[in-house]
Amino acid sequence: MALLGLLIALIRTSRSPALTPFRFLATIYVDVFRGIPMLLVILLVGFGIPALQLKGVTNNVLILGTIAVIITYSAYVAEVIRSGILTVHPSQRAAARSLGLSHIQTLRHVVLPQALKRVTPPLLNDLVALIKDTGLISILGVTDAIRAAQIQTSKSFNYTPYVMAALVFLAVTIPLTRMTDRMLRNSLERQNAQGQA
After folding, report:
1. Domain that holds residue 50
2. Three-state SS sequence of the chain
3. What is the distance, to the nearest Å, from the Cα of residue 96 to the centroid of all Cα atoms in its chain?
4. CA pair distance 44, 36, nearest whole angstrom
5. Based on the structure, what is the number of domains in the chain?
6. What CATH number corresponds to the domain at position 105?
């Protein structure tokens, strides 16, 4: 997902005339999959692909649900990375090019390290959202924490399994959220210290 998002972001920020059709397709991809609710993408992929009865294509709902989540979140990740790339000042590129670095070397050694450092906290926020949204795959019949809780609740009319599922999600997401907050705070402190020097 991160690699697909990075590829889309690189295509969208490219200025090469040869990549114009790909830039157009990448823009459509991002617009479509950020505009359609993930639940709908999961339904379309999870039930739509098996309905086509294509030979050699899996009908495993876990795989199809995972593909739907990857398709959706890649669009969000691409936009976060693209915003990071666009925040790198053009003088950084110019300086790298004046030192003799090629476009690819400039991107790899100058632009991307700065961009990825700047967008790490938003990417971690996307990771937290992704972890929570994986529960939506249960609508395809995949047994995850939410589906297991639903099954147990329907048997006993006791809603404790929902509380337990919520606690499982909290056990994962709260530490990630705190880590994101800490990274953002450290980043801001470094920026403030550099500004005061």
Report:
1. 2-134
2. CHHHHHHHHHHHHCCCHHHHHHHHHHHHHHHHHHHCCHHHHHHHHHHHHHHHCCCCCCCCHHHHHHHHHHHHHHHHHHHHHHHHHHHCCHHHHHHHHHCCCCHHHHHHHHHHHHHHHHHHHHHHHHHHHHHHHHHHHHHHCCCCHHHHHHHHHHHHCCCHHHHHHHHHHHHHHHHHHHHHHHHHHHHHHHHHHHHHC
3. 29
4. 11
5. 2
6. 1.10.3720.10
pTM: predicted TM-score of the whole model, two decimal places: 0.78
- Do 37 and 84 have their domain in common? yes
Residue 24 CA: distances (Å) to CA of 8, 17, 80, 96, 143: 11, 11, 18, 28, 38
174 vs 166: CA distance, rounded Å: 12
Model confidence pLDDT, tens digit, residues 146-196: 777 878 888 888 888 888 888 888 888 888 888 888 887 887 787 777 765
- Whether residue 38 contacts residue 68, with contact meaning beta carbons closer than 8 Å, is answered with yes
Same-domain pairing of 188 and 170:
yes
Which of the residues in the chain have pLDDT under 50?
197
Measured distance CA(93)–CA(86) in Å, rounded: 11
